[in-house]
Each structure stands twice: as C-alpha cells, then as structure tokens.
Design a protein that fits this description.
The complex is a heterotrimer of chains A (81), B (749) and C (159). By secondary structure, chain A is α+β, with helices and mostly antiparallel strands. Chain A has helices at 8-11, 27-37, 42-47; strands at residues 2-5, 19-22, 49-53, 56-58, 72-76. Chain C is an alpha+beta fold. Helices cover 34% and strands 16% of the residues of chain C. Chain C contains 5 helices and 5 strands. In chain C, strands 2-1-5-3-4 form a 5-stranded mixed sheet, with helices on both faces. The model of chain C has no long low-confidence stretch (mean pLDDT 97). The chains are: A alpha+beta (81), B alpha+beta (749), C alpha+beta (159).
Chain lengths: 81, 749, 159
C-alpha cells in the first residue's frame, strides 16, 4: 500500500482524510485506485493533477514506478508561462 | 560565480561558454521573419470586430452589408463554428476567440472579416450591425464575490465551492499542514494585512499575428507567432473539427511571449476566414487589441497572517487569496496557494485560494503564473516582522529557509535545493553592505517556482560532410537554439560551430509541449543529449564494422570513435566526419533521435535585492541597484541565463511600480496603449547584476534546472520592501505608482 | 482616394512607390516594399520597434506618412550592414547577448547608431535616455546598454 497525501480542499472528497492508502505500483494504478476508492475525487482527477513522487513532479507518465515507502503527494496540475 | 556543490558532472568544453547564437545575424539585420513578416500570393487581410461593452448579451449580428461590400471575401461569426460540448477547456478557448451568447469583456471578439485590403476590411467592420443588450458588469476581484454582484456564468462553480457563494467563484483550493491558529499562539508578534495587486500584461513587443490557408480538402497551413505550434495545431484542429495531421503549423520567430502566447486568440478565426474565402488570410493585432483582448495576468487580493518569535522564527503562516482570471475559469490561484510559503520550513501553514471570474479578458499564463503576487504578500509580511523585531531580513529568511528534507508547504519533501545558497551568497555580496542615502531603502525577497518537463521530440542528423543538424519543436524565445547546439556539440565532442539547430514545423516531429514551465533547456536539452548519444552509438557501430570488431569494443572519445582498451585492437580513431563520409557504405545516413516525456524537473529558488530612492515631492520611486541570486542547476549559456534573470527582474519591477490595468466605471479598459500602460524603459532601470548559482538538478544529465520563471517571483516584494523602507510607510497595493506613493507619504504626515 | 506617387531614397537605393495618402511609412516599407526589418509594436510611436532615420534624424516610421518620404533619404535596419560586414553595433549585440527574442533589435540598433553619430562617447545615463523610446521586454536593457557602450568604445578606437 502507498500512502498518498491529499491537499486540503481535496480531502473533503476523500472522506476528510489528508492521507489515504492506495494499492499501486505505478502512477496509473495510483490514479485509477484513487478514482475507484474515492469517486467524489473524480472531477478533480479528470480536470488533472500532478503527482510528486519522492520530491520529483510527474504530470503524465503512467508507468512511473512507486515504491511502498515512496512519498506520494497530489498537487494541482501544473502550468507554466 | 559558480558554486558547484557536486563534482561528478562531466568536465564541460562547450557548456558554460558564451558563443554567438545561430539566429543572431538574422535578428540584427532585420532578416528574421516574425509573425507579421510573412505573406502569401492572393493574401487577404483579416480584422476582428470587438465588443465596446464590458458585459452584454448579443441579441443579433447582421453581416449582410459587410458581405456585400466589394473586396470583402468572408465574414465570420460564432455561428460558423461547430458547438463544442464535450470539453469545457476548448469551448472556453473558442468562446474567447469568438463570443457566443454574450460579450464578456471590453474587446471580446464578436465577428471577423477578410478583405482584399486593410482599408476595405476596416470599412467592412463598420458595416457589421450588432445589437447588444447591455448587462451590469464587474471588474474588481473583491466586488465580484459580493452578494448581488453581476454574474458572468451560472453553473460553472466546481464541487469545491461551498453552497451559497456567488456564481462568480469557480474553485477553491487549500494547501498546507499543521494548525496555523495554534502556531500563531506561540508568536511574539503577528502581522495581519491585505495586499492587492493589479493585473499586468506580459507586454511582448510583437503583437499576435498569423497567416492561414485552408483548402476544401481539409488541409490547412498556419504560420504563427506562438510559444507552442503543436498546441496551436491540436487546439485549432479540435475547434475546427479537422484532423491534427492535416494541419501543418510553422512557428515564426517569436517576439516575446512570457506565457502570453501559450493559448489561441486569432488562429481559429484566421483558419475559418481562409476556409470561407478560399484565400490565404493574414491577421495582425494592434497593440490596443493585444492589451484589451489577450492574456493579462490575474489581479489579486490576498489576506496574510504570519506570526514570528522575537528571535525570528516563523511560528505559523496563513494566506487566503482571491485571484480573478478574467471572464473564464482558470486564474492561476492554485499556484499562488502552492508557492506562497514554499521557501520556508514551517510547522503550521495554510493557504486558501479562490478562482473568481470578472468582466475582463481571459487571463493567460505569465511567467511563474500566480506566484509573484503570492510572494509579494508573504514576503512583505515577513519583511515587516523582521523590521518589527529589528532583525536582519536575510538572517530571518535563513533561519526559516527550506532545505533538503523540509516538508514543503504544498506537500512534498524537498530534495537538494538552492534557496539557502542564494541567501548566503546574497548576505556575502557587496550590495548587502553598501551604504544608503537619504530617502533610500533596501529590500530583499525570495521566490520559488516548480518547473516541469513534458512531451519532447528531437532529431539529430549527421550530414555527409560531418556537420550536425538538430531539429526541435519548441519556439526559441530567448536563445534556446544556441543552448541545444551547445549540448549536442558537448555530447558529440565537436565544436559548437559544427551544429545548427532549427525549430521544425508540426509535420516534421512528433508532439511537443509548449515552450513554457521553464522546460526547454531542461526537457529539450535532455532529448538533444539523448539524441546525440543515439547517434554516437550508431557511429561506434559503423566504426566497429570498418574495423571488423565488436561494437561493444568501440567507445566515443573527443569527437571520434576509438577502440575501447588495448584488447579491442589497434586502430587510429575515426572522427565524426570520417564516419559520416562513408555512411552510405556502412548502412546509410546516420541520425539520432529521442522522443520522451521527461518529468522530474527540479524546483528553483531565487533571492533578489533591490535599492530604491523615493522622491518625497513626486512619489516617484527610482531603482538604484538590483541584484539577482538564483540557482540555475547548470548554466548552459550563462549569458542567456543572466538574460532570463535580468528580464524577469525588469518585468517584476514594472509590475511593482507602474504597470496596471485601469478600468473605468463603465468597465472599459482606459489604458490600452504603451503610452499609458507603462512598461519599464531603459532610463528607468540600473544595470541588473545576475549572480548564477549552480546546484545541479539530479534529474538532468548536465544538472540543468529551468531558469525562465523564478526570476519574476521575488521582485514585486523586493521592490515593495525597498520602497516601504525608503518611504517609511508600508506599501500593500501594487503598483506603487507615483500618485499612490505620494498619497501614502502624505497620509503618513 | 487616389494613390500618391513618391520618389525617395532608401538605404541609398533610389526607390519609387505608390501609397495611400494616409498610409504610414512603416506600412509602405513592410507591405509595399517587402522591407519587414522595421517592426510594428504599437503603431503609436511608443515602442520604437519601427525606428528609421529620415535625412539622418531618428523617427518612428509609424508616425511618418509614406508620402512624406518624397525627396528624402530613409535609413532602415536593412541598410545597416555593408554587404556581409556587420556594423560594429550589430556585432556587439550578438557578442553581448543583447537580444533574446529579437523583435526590438532592429529599432534599437537604428536608434543606437543614431546616438553614436551624434555622441560618440555617451555615458550610461545618456545611452539609457536616448534609448528610452525603444522598448525591450526581454532583457531588462542591461546587456543592450553594455553592447552599445562597448560598440561606442570600439568605434572611437577605430576612428
């Protein structure tokens, strides 16, 4: 199981938890797992999120591996100028 | 100045030097072709009719008189475009390019014409008869959320917005950890203030321009100044309902963007005019159109509460930020909320962000979108606390600085970062100890930005004479072709002059993310290095064939293949040129390519220092001295890294002192020109010292971090802190234009 | 409206064109003569991207009518290099990385050349005030000012 930190306003859609556990070995499984476990998060997941895995930020790469002890943090989807 | 913290990087020969850029001569001779510099046989001029109202229902549009005018070949309104129902994002872009049911801001596009001359096109615009039903409007971010404020859209608020709020509030974000109210109890002093910033424009000197052709077979060609021609292709294809592969987009030289050219304004309209007329159509905006209808940044209103102990430890930070992003969802408030406290190691921190709509043009990205305003608020409050206790503002920041292992206010734990290095370098710099005179003040501030990667393609070809061409798909906005040539030359072990990099059209490479997020030197650089490595492997293989040895027994050293070790055999090295010469005999042309979505870009920090003199008689603030300290990871072309630091600082100075969108009570933009929208000119600024620190990014083979955006984050606060020190009064509203500063001086007495 | 026939000299070349009476010199250069080196950043004389010289005087070509070129001598960015030899200012702009996007560069070069013809040894302040009519949004002006002052030095030494 991977511990996933959820940002404050998104926690309301994860049963008010700021951290949830998801069975996932990569980014795709993580995002699918979140949507399945917390359907209320789906609108935000559909709008897009970025994910910090051990301090590095990923937007898209489904098969980025995630270890059991990885630090995983959901972030608002990044944009730049 | 280089402060390399790691020595396992390669010993560079080309990287870190300052060669001439490949587009230099074209750009100093006037030969370089920008958006408006292209023409086509039989070309028509396209012009747009814009709303004179801030908010109005479009009752009817009668184009018959315009269509009947001799020389007019097409008139386009929203009715010519298909309905987009499955994608809010694209639907909003289309609605911004051509209004549907309502005009949502002064300058909103209502209709367009294509005619055989500009004069006839202007005449035709006057013949379009639009019946408007004027609606009440709102342009101020705080007024937009009041009860009874005019509503732009019903039903666009997302699930994060509590019931009962104004429909103009579209999203709510919250980040942080701990309990700020608890933390504030441990403070010896708390600063609680509201800060406001006005909208500013990216202010690129080149107005938007494009030249479109569109045949009845669905094939289109578009020449356009943009930060991302692949984005232009994909979004135009979606809007027009054509296939991406049928639309070829070529990026012109781009005359500045800073985030403002990361979306569409003219392009789908130009393609539609070209389709209807069967002729090439060129569209070029006026400056007034650029200011009225293209991407300014958000205006903001931010409440901050920060507590500090008397020895300078921040006990808690809280910020509630309201950003209006114009008439559509998508102000950059989430990035403000994520970045506001990012430079600090805090036990208790919380930020709340509200995305709000008003009757203003749809905000576009502007360099580190959302972060400069948040940094202005937080860094001003920290400065005020340091001054309250008589503490050194750099020491206070050092005491609270985020470092490796700090849990960031937006969630993750930082890897190696460069904030502390920028603060220490700033403290040791002669600028920090230089004397100040009467009416002068010094300010410092820190800033943070994320940076990212994204889809990237690079193809590197070895020509028969042993020179190298690199094709990349990202418009070169500040010298990136030079940087790519340098990285290719470095990796191949050949002189910089042997490599020429071009920006290829959308038919020549696969998908490329926009030139944004400070991503190009990082991601395109990484792909260039990988493409060069692929070419090296192929060249080693060719040499192995010629020598009759295993390809594993060949290595690439200093621009040549050579046997790897004494057991591989004794052969004189074969240079790249020698291998290229016989390529036809050894299997054909040699190339390397790399397609990837490099993620894991490193975050970036900067500290800025600024001296200001305030004229007590006029309220004018003059920048006397300015120094930027920023971590570049590794500076590929240091002159262009310095240029990014200096340019970001100058834009931030403009934002702090003079630039602002001024709306009248009628909701009409009052300063849609460079005379009244005043960007810094040469005589406003001193030299801007750029101190490059190099704390390598482990996610890039050469250690590169993005540098383009972080440099605009600290200046608003650095200048405000300096002005506040010089004036003896805390300035909380930007810009600190002379009338506002003079009023503050008078109020102080 | 009838077009005006204009006979003029551009970068030393005798040139004739027809233009509308209300057409700017900038539009004539760009749209009728194909000389797109002069840029339009504002059309109101505020940005200097269209800087040219009219009988040696620095002007914004967006504020001059094409018809006013009759019998005059116009100098544009296209006439700055002599054959393949760049002007010292052009070389120094490349050497000092005094351009990022390059849209303001032609106007700045024309304006800087005009400065150095009047004042071969300008101070930094004089350079900044002379170039205050030429907006650059990329560089913060630092490297531009250095390039112009370095060019001035080299031109003085060569003189």
């Amino acid at each position: 199981m991977v511990q996933v930190k959820i940002w404050g306003s998104l926690a309301a859609f994860a049963d008010d938890q700021s951290q949830v556990e998801i069975e996932a070995k990569n980014l795709r499984e993580l995002l699918d797992g979140l949507a399945a476990a917390y359907p209320a998060m789906r609108p935000q997941l559909d709008r897009g999120v970025s994910v910090s895995i051990d301090g590095r930020i990923y937007n898209d790469s489904w098969f980025t591996p995630i270890r059991e002890d990885s630090e995983v943090v959901l972030l608002a989807r990044l944009k730049g100028g | 100045m280089a402060l390399d913290s790691k020595s396992d990087l390669p010993q560079f020969k080309v990287v870190g030097t300052r060669p001439a850029r490949p587009d230099g001569i074209d750009k100093v001779t006037g030969r370089a072709r920008f958006g408006a510099d292209m023409s086509a046989p039989g070309m028509l001029t396209g012009l747009i009719l814009r709303s004179p109202h801030a908010h109005a229902r479009i009752v009817s549009i009668d184009t018959s008189k315009a269509e009947a005018l001799a020389g007019v070949h097409a008139v386009v309104t929203r009715k010519d475009f298909r309905e987009i129902t499955d994608d809010d994002f694209t639907a909003d872009i289309l609605d911004n390019c051509m209004a549907g049911a309502k005009a949502l801001y002064d300058g909103h596009a209502i209709a367009a014409v294509a005619a055989s001359s500009t004069k006839i096109a202007r005449e035709a615009l006057k013949l379009i008869d639009v019946t408007y039903e004027k609606l009440d409007h709102v342009t101020d971010v705080d007024e937009a959320i009041e009860d009874g404020a005019p509503v732009l859209h019903e039903g666009r608020s997302d699930e994060t917005v509590p019931a009962g709020m104004s429909p103009n509030v579209l999203s709510r974000y919250e980040f942080g950890h701990g309990d700020p109210e608890e933390g504030l109890k441990n403070a010896d002093h708390v600063v609680e203030r509201t800060y406001k910033t006005e909208a500013t424009h990216q202010g690129y000197i080149e107005p938007h321009a494009c030249l479109a052709q569109m045949g009845p077979d669905g094939q289109g060609d578009l020449w356009v100044c943009t930060q991302g021609h692949y984005m232009v292709r994909n979004t135009c294809a979606a809007i027009l309902g054509i296939e991406q592969g049928q639309l070829r987009v070529t990026a012109s030289e781009i005359g500045g963007g800073f985030g403002g050219k990361t979306t569409l304004f003219l392009e789908p309209v130009a393609l539609m005019l070209a389709k209807k007329s069967g002729r090439p159509v060129k569209m070029v905006m006026t400056r007034s159109e650029v200011l009225r209808a293209t991407g300014p940044t958000a205006s903001t209103s931010i409440d901050v509460k920060i507590g500090m102990t008397k020895d300078g430890k921040i006990t808690a930070g809280f910020a509630e930020m309201r950003y209006q992003g114009g008439a559509y969802p998508g102000s950059p408030v989430e990035f403000g909320a994520m970045s506001a406290f990012a430079p600090y190691d805090l036990e208790h921190v919380k930020t709340i962000g509200w995305d709000i709509v008003t009757n203003r043009p749809k905000a576009a990205a502007y360099r580190a979108p959302g972060a400069p305003m948040a940094a202005f608020a937080v860094e001003s409050a920290i400065d005020e606390l340091a001054r309250h206790f008589g503490l050194d503002p750099l020491e206070v920041r050092l005491k609270n600085a985020a470092r490796e292992g700090t849990k960031a206010s937006y969630g993750p734990t930082y890897p190696a970062i460069g904030l502390e290095a920028t603060l220490r370098t700033a403290k040791d710099h002669p600028h920090w100890s230089a004397p100040l005179g009467e009416n002068q003040g010094r300010g410092v501030a820190c800033g943070f930005w994320f940076n990212f990667g994204g889809d990237t393609c690079v193809t590197l070809n070895i020509t028969p004479d042993g020179t190298v061409t690199v094709s990349e798909g990202n418009p070169d906005i500040g010298g990136s072709r030079a940087s790519m040539s340098m990285m290719a030359a470095e990796e191949l072990g050949i002189p910089y002059e042997k490599v020429r990099t071009i920006v290829a059209d959308t038919g020549s490479l696969g998908q490329n993310e926009v030139t944004d997020g400070s991503r190009v030197t990082f991601a395109v650089g990484l792909a260039t290095i990988e493409a060069a490595r692929a070419a090296k492997r192929e060249m080693c293989k060719r040499a192995a064939m010629i020598w009759g040895i295993d390809e594993e027994a060949v290595e690439w050293v200093d621009g040549a293949a050579q046997p790897a070790g004494p057991n591989a055999g004794k052969f004189p090295p074969m240079t790249l040129a020698e291998i290229a010469e016989t390529a036809s005999n050894t299997g054909g042309p040699i190339a390397g390519h790399h397609e990837a979505n490099p993620e894991g870009a490193g975050v970036s920090f900067a500290t800025h220092m600024c001296d200001v003199e305030v004229d007590p008689d006029t309220g004018a603030a003059k920048i006397l001295r300015y120094t930027v300290f920023q971590d570049a990871g590794k500076a590929i072309h240091p002159a262009y890294v310095e240029g990014q630091f200096q340019g970001g600082a100058a834009q931030g100075i403009g934002w702090a002192l003079n630039e602002e969108y001024i709306y009248g009570d009628d909701g009409i933009l009052q300063n849609a020109g460079f005379l009244d929208y005043r960007v810094p000119v040469a005589s406003d600024l001193p030299m801007i010292d750029a101190v490059i620190l190099e704390i390598p990014n482990p996610g890039h083979p050469y250690g590169v971090r993005g540098v383009g955006e972080t440099s605009i984050v600290p200046p608003l606060a650095a200048v405000a802190n300096a002005v506040s020190a010089a004036a003896g009064v805390r300035m909380t509203d930007l810009p600190m234009s002379p009338p506002k500063l003079l009023a503050a001086l008078h109020a102080k007495g | 409206m009838t077009k005006v026939h204009v006979t003029t000299t551009i970068n030393g070349d005798p040139t004739e064109f027809l233009c509308e009476p209300d057409e700017t010199l900038l539009d004539v250069l760009r749209d009728r003569l194909g000389m797109t080196g002069s840029k339009e950043g504002c059309g109101t004389g505020d940005c200097g991207a269209c800087s040219v010289t009219l009988n040696g005087r620095l002007v914004c070509s967006c504020l001059v009518l094409g018809a006013e070129a009759e019998g005059q001598e116009i100098g544009t960015i296209e006439g700055m290099a002599q054959g393949e030899n760049l002007h010292v200012l052009q070389k120094k702009f490349i050497e000092h990385a005094a351009l990022q996007c390059g849209i303001c560069t032609p106007g700045l070069l024309v304006a800087a050349k005009s400065l150095l013809e009047k004042n071969p040894d300008p101070t930094e302040e004089e350079t900044r005030y002379w170039l205050a009519g030429n907006l650059c949004r990329c560089t913060g002006y630092d490297k531009i000012i250095r390039a112009v002052m370095d060019a001035a030095k080299e031109m003085r030494e060569a003189a």
